[in-house]
Specification:
By secondary structure, this protein is of the alpha+beta class. It has six helices and six strands; from the N terminus they run αααββααβαβββ. It has one domain. Helix content is 59%, strand content 13%.
Amino acid sequence: MIRYFSHQALHVRNGKSGQAMVLFLVVVCTVMTLLFSSIAIHNMTASKVACANAVDAIALHAATWEARCLNLISALNEGISHCMTIIRWTIVVWAGLAIAAAFGVGVPPFLEFTRYAREIISDCWSTAKKFASWSENIRKMAPSLVLGETIALAVKLKVVGVLHPFDPTGPHDGKNTLELHLEKGPPINLLDVFDPIFSVIRQINRFLYLSNNMKNVKNLLNSAINFLVGGNTEPIYMLVPEKDFQERQFVRFVGSMEHRPLPIPFLGNNETHRLPDEAHAEPYGGDVESMTWKSRLTKREVK
């Protein structure tokens, strides 16, 4: 080939310029082939990067919505804790006023505060129960929310794929369900915070002869406790992460994006095909009451 090109160069030097056309066409075709091949490779690489970014974004989006649901539950848990704190301090103040009233000091403030204490305790306990109920509803709703948001983003990015675990309402076994892997914490009973009041009643019962103030205080406390605890015997629970939360709470998105090659006829590669990819993501960094859940991409071995 090199010898042929040398002969063509000699012909050009001898005044036979028409012979250079073959050399020119070969060189031009070679350069054009390399140029268009580079463009096609760059186009393929760009499509693969776009597909990988889209799949990563979808997996991270799913984990982000899990983290948002966990933050909502953490906020509700914190609300339950605040309600119980208000109840405890209300009972402590109530018990102190009861002791003073039992010995004839500050009876009117005790009677006035008793009325407010019943309202405060009843309202705070009802609010705590609502918070616990909302937490359970969020836990049940989270899989459908995560799945719906994932589908919406996949449609927007023109990605076809499947989110694993793929069953939003399957058995809570850590394998085939998107359910948040939370469990009920220790029970919270309203009676558990009445120890200061019970202590006052026990102190009053030690006296063999009760004064009128002691009898009135004791009867008022007993009636208030019966009113408050009578219909609130069921405990409430905070939702806490399971022991193996980190091993269970993750998502994997397997998807593909359509790739359309550039219309370069002589390369012979004009068929549209799909580029597959997958990504893993998980929520992390939170706690029972700390609203610091975040999401991140991670790598996991598929078993």
